[in-house]
Amino acid sequence: xxxxxxxxxxxxxxxxxxxxxxxxxxxxxxxxxxxxxxxxxxxxxxxxxxxxxxxxxxxxxxxxxxxxxxxxxxxxxxxxxxxxxxxxxxxxxxxxxxxxxxxxxxxxxxxxxxxxxxxxxxxxxxxxxxxx
Length: 132
Fold this sequence. Notes:
Elements: H1 10-22, E1 31-35, E2 38-39, E3 44-45, H2 48-59, E4 66-71, H3 77-87, E5 94-98, H4 106-113, H5 115-122
Parallel strand pairs: 1-4, 4-5
Antiparallel strand pairs: 2-3
């Protein structure tokens, strides 16, 4: 994870830009983790910080394929569509990452949001289930 906007992160952002440029599309995937803050006084989620961080990444030549949105409140479909529209990703590539009581819940939440399907589709892979 590289914080966008910090001067210390620029070499990492540049490395991602070069990877995204040099590698075939199906061999590289950029997942941007961002915070969608909830303002309790206004009782609303704010997408501007996410839009701003994606814009900063884009200015550096990095274009996310998926946006994972950390949040303490559920994201409505309208919020997901807004993030998708203003961040130039498909609506199903906006993933909700609600605060979890345990880190072990996070992979299950990502599965519920369909992140596994998006990754498999990007890399042109098919899922096989192995039961032991």
